[in-house]
Amino acid sequence: MIRLIFCLLAALFPLHLLAATQLNEEVIFVPKKMLIGSISLETTIFKPNGDGPFPLVIINHGKSFGNSHFQNRYRPLSPIRYFLERNYVVFVPMRQGFSKSGGNYSDGSCSMKANGLLQAEDIQPVIEYAHGLPYVDKVQTLIVGQSHGGWTTLAYGASKPDQSVKGLVNFAGGLKNESCGGWQSDLYRTAEDFGKATKVPTIWFYGDNDSFFSRQTSDAMFESYRAGNPQSQFVAYGTFGSDSHLLFTSNDGRAIWEPYLTKFLESIGMSSKVVNPQFQPLPRTEVPSKTQFAEIGELEKIPYSTDSMRKAYSLFLEKPFPKAFAISETKNYGWEYGGDDPLASALSRCEKKASAKCKLYAVDDYVVW
Q1: CA 204/CA 168 separation, integer angstroms
Q2: With 70 as the cut, is the pLDDT of residue 2 above it?
Q3: What was the pLDDT predicted at 20?
Q4: CA 368 → CA 296, 314, 326, distances in Å?
Q5: CB 41 within 8 A of CB 11
Q6: Residue closest to 174 by CA, chosen among 132, 124, 216, 135
């Protein structure tokens, strides 16, 4: 019955608008003071129902390749739903120079420390803005980040964080710049410095097949950090898909990190029990099994393909999990990434253009044709 209702609603409203309504999603622009004038940080709020006050979660995004202004607004719905279920209000800011936020990305040249601290400067204005809202609890804040956002989270913990911050959550965080000599040594030294300056508990999640950070690198970074901040836990969960760096945004990744994160919240005295079951994940399209038809990157093997389809598929390959690509024998296609059910959305996009039924060709990092 739930599935039927959802399908009827999806037929009336675009999937992303439906999700936005269900999650009380709102996009705002938070002012950030600069040396001269100010800029605005594009920030998405996901709010539980009711008046609150709700404990606050800040989720920090990673960095895609290319111009940071072309990076899409970050919406990691799986962890967002996790926190809404537990009655948190979630703020997801785009840092300076990303997406529609003002200013330009500050990379700190080849200094890992400068990069992290520059990125961390964008967190405090968001917390201060949130604390000005009547429905936000001003004494309970959790900072979460993935990839470059995880590094930003660790840097913020070392940079005079707001007194309301109770803990830091780091998913595959770090900074990799192979054009800078000795980047790994700098990463370890900076992690040690961040640890020494951090007074709140942290939890780190890293996999064995991370495309950015090998276990040797993540282990060394953590041990350097823990030497300064022993209130730190490392979760080594093994392999995940073809790239464990994408665990945080994958719908399937939640089963791995949820029990550890829930225990961490309990340990720091923050809300850990589900009180809003209405925010739990919606029923999703059944994910087909991987086939041996082709490897994910073999564009020449896509059936019924055209230059336009192959170009779209190349873009699809660059997107984070979850994602899906659908095709039809009439040479039409549709694809989607992110959201609760990218498979259904990809099929829907394809069938709007096709005169024949569409089928899924690829899901996440494998072919299902």
Answers
A1: 9
A2: no
A3: 54
A4: 9, 17, 10
A5: no
A6: 216
Structure tokens at 163: 């007194």
Mind listing the domains of the chain with CATH numbers? 2-279 (3.40.50.1820), 299-367 (no CATH)
Q: Among candidates 276, 279, 146, which has minimal Cα distance to 206?
A: 146
The SS3 call for residue 226 is helix
Which of 324, 319, 327, 326 minimizes the C-alpha distance to 341?
324
What are the tens digits of pLDDT across the range 197-243?
999 999 999 999 999 999 999 999 999 999 999 999 999 999 998 89
Phi, psi of 363 (to 5 degrees): -130, 130
Cβ partners under 8 Å of residue 253, min gap 6: 78, 240, 246, 247, 321
Q: How far apart are CA 270 and CA 284, in angstroms?
A: 30
Q: What share of the chain is helix, strand, coil (3-state, %, to 5)?
A: 35, 20, 45
Q: Which of 192, 289, 297, 293 is nearest to 243 (CA)?
A: 297
The pLDDT mean for the chain works out to: 91
Half-sphere exposure of 240 (CA within 13 A, CB side): 26
Assigned token pair, 34: 């600069």
Does residue 11 surpass a pLDDT of 60? no
pTM: predicted TM-score of the whole model, two decimal places: 0.83
Say which residues have a Cβ less than 8 Å from residue 331's Cβ, sequence separation at least 6.
Answer: 304, 305, 306, 309
Q: Which residues pair with 334 in a beta bridge?
A: 326
Closest CA to 76 of 67, 65, 84, 87: 84
